[in-house]
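Ticket #4471: structure output looks truncated?

Reporter: J.K.
Steps to reproduce: submitted the chain below (245 residues) through the standard prediction queue, then opened the result file.
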Amino acid sequence: MAAIGALVFTQQSLRATQEQLIISRNGQSSERFTKAIEQLGNKESIDVRVGSIYALERLAKDSGTDRPVIMEVLANFVRTRSPAVQQPDGTYACASEDRVPADIEAAVVVIGRRDRGRDENFVDLGRSCLRVRGANQADFSQTILYHSDFTGASLKQARFVGTTVQHARFDHAILYGANFSGVTGDGASFRLASLPNATFDRADLRGADFTGAYVGDSSFDASVVTGTKFEAADLTRVDFSKAIS
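Returned output as attached by the reporter:
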């Protein structure tokens, strides 16, 4: 009886310890989240904001329950701090030709390297100015990029699989080996972009504009290219026989 009593006591103690650990970890996560959010709102130091973005990234990796909220916070930060401005023709573009500030770039990079396998919803970066230079190999799959402006961005081997890029701007962007398979991209602009070895299989590119772009060795299998513009584009070794026009 004494042995059984000791065993029950030990099991109860272990459960209590585990519960205390969970409470402690949750408390630490909450404190880290609150501090990072406060620093993200710092209006005086861009370095503090950049540090808070990477702190949120670490927290997202450590706490799966907080991850969806953190991604939405970062996306909202980008949309509100770096909005694309509506033009007279109804399209959207960056208000300046300069690259985005370091804090915006950091947030975009973190979103682009998130673990998409743990996504609960699409991340919304629509109508945002996204002229970033450090987003090579970023994964924007299942991201909303409606009317966003990537003009001049460096996006080598970036993934946009299944992404909404309707009326988005990729003019002058560097997109070597980028994957746009399955995108909804009607009205998107790739004017003068560098797109060798890109993949546009099963993409909706109705009315998209590739004027002057370098599209050599790219794939458009089963993509819809009705009304797509390729004037003065380099289409070396591009086969449209399987595209839908």
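Triage note (M.O.): checked the attachment and the full token line is present. The chain has a mean pLDDT of 89.
Status: closed, working as intended.
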